[in-house]
Amino acid sequence: EEDQACNEDPCPVNGEWSEWGPYGDCSVPCGIGTKSREKLCNNPAPAYGGEFCDGPPVEVSDCDAGSCAVDGNWGEFSAWSECSKSCGGGDLTRTRNCNNPEPKLRRIRPVTRTLVLLTESGRNGARMVIALSLVDREQVERKVM
């Protein structure tokens, strides 16, 4: 009996997917974005004319990176109050709040500061000092007569 080799080419090997890799970072620093992960056609890789893996190599999923911070801004001043004294020099006060919009996701420390912003001449040469006090998210303006 005599043997002779035949069909010596290797058999085709169809590709199979690896396990999914980890998800990458969310595409946005805050709000709703996407994240993706991938798998490779290497378990085994296709060889000798075998088929490539079936299906997409990338999976995309929604991600929630949390709420976005909003910087606060001052609203309008209220009307001036009545004078605190009927004579002898009193105070007028008005306020405005940090609510246009209100800040979000920022830790707000109570702050109390008084800033003298401007001195102006009033009637009959009287001087008025306009001072601002900042207390937390409220701004108070006072005219000292």
Task: Give a quick precis of the structure.
Helix content is 0%, strand content 32%.
Mean pLDDT: 79
Low-confidence stretches: 106-130
Percent of residues in beta strands: 25-35%
Radius of gyration: 36 Å
User: Could you state the order of secondary-structure elements as H and E?
Assistant: EEEEEE
- Which descriptor suits the 3D outline? rod-shaped
Q: What is the number of beta strands? A: 6
Oligomeric category:
single chain
**Percent helix range:** under 10%
Class by helix and strand content? mainly beta
How are the strands of the biggest sheet laid out side by side? 3-6-5-4
Count of DSSP H/I helices: 0
What does the largest sheet look like?
4 strands, antiparallel
Task: Determine the N-to-C terminus distance.
Answer: 126 Å
